[in-house]
Amino acid sequence: MSNVKIDSYFVEQRMFGLAAFGTDLDDDLIRQFGAIKAAHRIQAPEVKAKHAYDKPPFMLELLDLLMARSCPIFIELVDKHYFVVANIIERMVVPYVGECDVEPKTLWIKGVMADYMALYAPPDLAHAFTACCQSRDHAAIRELYKAIIRWAQESPYPPQEVAQGIVRFAQDSLKDYRKLPKARAVERALPVPDANPVGKLLWVLPNLTSFTNIYARINHHRAKRMSGVTLFHDEQLQFGDIFQQNKQIAESFAELGLKLPLKTADFEFWEAAELKFLRSHESIGIQIADILAGFCTRYVQDVVWSGASRQGDKAVAFDRLVGSANRNRGTGINFVAPDRMLHFLGIAPLPNY
Which end of the chain, N or C, is less surrounded by CB atoms within 10 Å? Predict the structure, then answer.
């Protein structure tokens, strides 16, 4: 998302979604899915999420099918602007220094700050951050620290103690930034980049974070028994190698002594799943996962930013997905978004730590 231009900053595609569901892709599932398609006059061999969204009765029958088979459903819904802001908090305002930074209290503080900044800070700060990712310019990053501090000092919005906390943490981080050698300071202030197959560096990838979190949620759901599990992902020519590398990194957390105290995800892997890439038109499973993700992103986009009603079959389908969550099993929708958005959608935010 470091490539998003200011003139089109998340105007139409504010939400990102990634979904997975667990099942055996047997003949019975294929037959029943085909029958639902036929009943709703969907003739295309590959069902696209945008077409399914306009047929909410189709979506409801698909959910009936998945829930009748007791398929666990895992969905990540990400507000892209909030995701950029969370990276600013995580890297520049309250950077990681040790195990204390993944304790519940610290995670709560970071979440409160990210909520406040996402709601009240001008988009210019997010753009300056993504520009720094591209330039990796020491002076530009230093000026961004100052801009964050200046904004928070002048912010008129309550609660003022959150703005004051951002000022205090950012000032301390800026002092540390000035003390470090330039290359080390830049490295610490920015997200770790990934390289695509041609060597281009990429920053702030919600698809990657969503994938690794779903992987950890499945690990939690299966009580670390991942041997024999295969993850099928839509073919990703640009990101395939990155996904494989970061899957391996996630699997190594336990060996490195890194622990994340999350209620719905378990990053302590005892066993590894296999990851395979398929073209979506070759896999009904990938099509169904895409329908789930696409439906949720479009629904939230329409309700929150386009003024759509929270009535009708679309709302019923969305509420069923929200209501299907079982935090003890890691299933349902995980929102990476401000609490205020969840309240607007009629959802009570719950901490994940």
Answer: C
List strand residue ranges (DSSP E) for the chain, in order.
15-21, 73-79, 194-195, 201-202, 230-234, 274-278, 332-336
Tokens representing residue 257 in the block: 């002594």
The whole-number pLDDT of residue 205 equals 80
Taking the C-alpha atoms of residue 43 and residue 78, their distance in angstroms, rounded to an integer, is 31
Tell me the residue type at 269: F
What the block records as the tokens of 245 is: 């590398």
The predicted-structure confidence for 210-257, as pLDDT tens digits, reads as follows 999 999 999 999 999 999 999 999 987 777 888 898 899 899 987 777
pLDDT confidence of residue 51: 84
DSSP letters of 67-79?
HHTT--EEEEEEE
Low-confidence ranges of the chain (pLDDT < 50): none
Q: Residue 141 has what pLDDT? A: 98
SS3 21: strand
> Per the domain annotation, does 218 fall within a domain?
no
Q: For 7, which DSSP code?
A: G
Q: What is the pLDDT of residue 45?
A: 84
Q: How many domains is the chain built from?
A: 1
Cα–Cα dist 339/341, whole Å: 5
| Domain, as residue range, for 92 | 80-194
DSSP-derived 3-state class of residue 233: strand
130 within a domain of the structure (yes/no): yes
CA distance to 19, 91, 152, 160, 166, per residue, from 173 (Å): 36, 9, 15, 20, 10
Measure the CA dihedral 59/335/121/9, to 10°. Answer: -40
User: In this structure, is residue 132 part of a structural domain?
Assistant: yes
Which tens digit of pLDDT belongs to each residue from 165-177?
999 999 999 999 9
Q: Nearest Cα to 253, choosing from 227, 225, 202, 215? A: 215
Number of helices followed by number of strands (H, E) in the chain: 15, 7
